[in-house]
User: What shape does this take?
Amino acid sequence: MTDRPQLDLANYLPYLINRLGGALVAAMTDKALAASDLTIDMWRLLAVLSYRGAQRQVDMVAMTSIEASTVSRLVTRLARMGLVTRQRSETSNREVVIELTAKGRSLVERIIPCAHKLEEMAAAGVPAKDMAVVKRSLRRMYDNIARQSR
Amino acid sequence: MTDRPQLDLANYLPYLINRLGGALVAAMTDKALAASDLTIDMWRLLAVLSYRGAQRQVDMVAMTSIEASTVSRLVTRLARMGLVTRQRSETSNREVVIELTAKGRSLVERIIPCAHKLEEMAAAGVPAKDMAVVKRSLRRMYDNIARQSR
DNA sequence: TGACAATTGTTGTCAATGCAATTGTTGTGA
DNA sequence: TCACAACAATTGCATTGACAACAATTGTCA
Assistant: This one.
């Protein structure tokens, strides 16, 4: 008698991960981004530019997992909003380098405190020691999958 | 001199969460779902039905965070594929009760082992003790946000 | 060198999604 | 009991997003 396969969602990692991820996105969207007319993907692109400095679009794709064509169009919108500049790379003429403008940097710096507050709010009641375990494990699991699917 | 706000993405929880979430979705999609013509959202609906039994659409919305209108249309497609049935509730005539068909249940039971394998693959090298901390913390953080945004 | 493959970015197209409005039903308080 | 609010599901419509095709540039190796 073979036991029937079951899935205990309340203890299933992908479910727990994506449920929390969705809640974080929703909270971020209407607590920090709505006022600035930013979508969550625009915010991700700006955050990567702030974290890593000027980037090619292909690198932003790698960092955010947003589709290349979507990145292309989002960058167009961000540039039109005056938040980033888009220049041809000096080293290669097919590459484009995206960079935050002063306005873009100032906007990101106004949003970052909200991002930190959101993280604190989510982490309430989770001991620092546990949080360290969580973050380390999340990085490890991502690496496992990224390595596997290549 | 006020220090400028910064965001260390490599240690920022929402980033780590959603990066892993996306990788899990991508891996699940092309390793377990592609062969069955299921999208990730269809799989989520089927998994909820398998986990909780017959459900109203509004409850599936709560469990999956998929938009109500999207659930309505996805259920239509799943019904057309012969994987679920959609019946008016006995207790209330405005509610609809969705239930797995035998075909639907058998499909879910064929996918569940792949889902478990994916979880194992991701968890490789993470001690069971740490994984327990991770799952407990993920639940706690979700509750924090859900409570806050209500 | 020169043909061809790989990389980078953009555009066209169409299905899927989200939001608002709508329909139909059930609950509730005056 | 009746008017009205709340709930559940669906539909219309505009927007979004993904995929494929394409253009342009750069790398590679025979």
